[in-house]
Amino acid sequence: MEWPALPLKDGNLLGFGTGTAWYKHDPSDPPNPELVKVLKAALFKGFVHIDTADSYGTEREVGTAIKESGIPRDKLFITTKVLDGWRDVPAALRKSLERLQLHYVDLYLLHNPYVIPTTEDLQNAWKGLEAVKAAGLARSIGVSNFQRQHLEAVLEVGTEVPALNQLELHPYLQRADDFVPWMRENGVEVSSFKTLSPITVAAGGPLDPVLTSIASNHKTAVSTVLLSWAIGHNIVPITTTSSSARMDEYIAAIALKLSAKEEEEITQVGLQHHFRWWGKKFFGQDDRS
């Protein structure tokens, strides 16, 4: 199967994540054999984009799974992120690469602007990401959980434009004030986590019957429909599961082509309801930005 990609970063439009709660553990603990098993299963199913972060405590498992899979490095797309190490990004990435057993990552993200005290600190952290790209330790660099003001601060001083912003995005949180078009106008692509929220943490909303009907028409799963909706908008969804059957559902989203009417119905019904899972303390109750 030919997996679609975003040309600017050669990144596949579907990623397998490792940020789920049961994966997380103290980095000093031995590697989690169950996670290694799940990751190898995902790789053998055909996932080539694996998403991790230093704060997840799962980089060693990703590295072990890659090594044990035998899949050539150049066939994979590996994303990781820096959180607490923002003050010395090169040192943080070297530690991540050691845990991943890799010489470079395909995409390195500044994980969370809200842990960085000042705009100047944020800009200096971004310069650290530019340094690791220049050193060949990261093929592409980007950000995660950034709002417009954070991106504007980076664009003000950066010699590199963030390749991508990974943030919560789904039909119930499509981001207000033309944020997604604005990012793309400035050369920043979009990746989503919690893409399946309408059928998981936000189930029971107005999209339930819509998604069920569309899935029935295509003889597929509702998760496949939601991921296809994201991919149809050139968004890179990051999702995960320990179930082999669920992996098949997710991969099926690559081949599923929703009609323009179906995509628009999901979009418009989704706009009728608001739900945010990540970072609620940073936003007002009705803030859709």
How would you describe the overall organization of this protein?
The chain has 289 residues and is α/β, with parallel strands linked by helices. It folds into two domains: 161 residues, NADP-dependent oxidoreductase domain (TIM Barrel); 78 residues, no CATH class. The protein has ten helices and ten strands. Strands 3-4-5-6-7-8-9-10 form an eight-stranded parallel β-barrel, surrounded by four helices. Helix 1 crosses helix 2, helix 4 packs across helix 5 and helix 8 crosses helix 9. The chain starts with a strand and ends in a 19-residue tail after the last helix. The model has no long low-confidence stretch (mean pLDDT 93).
Radius of gyration: 18 Å
**Oligomeric state as shown:** single chain
CATH homologous superfamily label of the largest domain: NADP-dependent oxidoreductase domain
Order of secondary-structure elements:
EEEHEHEHEHEHEHEHHEHH
N-C termini distance = 36 Å
Percent in strands? 15-25%
Task: Estimate the mean pLDDT confidence.
Answer: 93
Please name the CATH topology of the largest domain: TIM Barrel
User: Low-confidence stretches at least 5 residues in length (pLDDT < 50)?
Assistant: none
Helical fraction: 25-40%
CATH architectural type of the largest domain = Alpha-Beta Barrel
User: How do the strands line up in the largest sheet?
Assistant: 3-4-5-6-7-8-9-10
The total of beta strands comes to 10
By secondary-structure content and strand pairing, the structural class works out as alpha/beta
Question: Counting H and I runs of at least 4 residues, what is the number of helices?
Answer: 10
CATH top level class name of the largest domain? Alpha Beta
Structural domain count: 2
Globally, the shape reads globular
Major beta-sheet overview: 8 strands, parallel, barrel
GO molecular function: oxidoreductase activity, acting on NAD(P)H as acceptor; oxidoreductase activity, acting on the CH-OH group of donors, NAD or NADP as acceptor
Site (Lowers pKa of active site Tyr): 81
Keywords: NADP, Oxidoreductase
Family: Belongs to the aldo/keto reductase family.
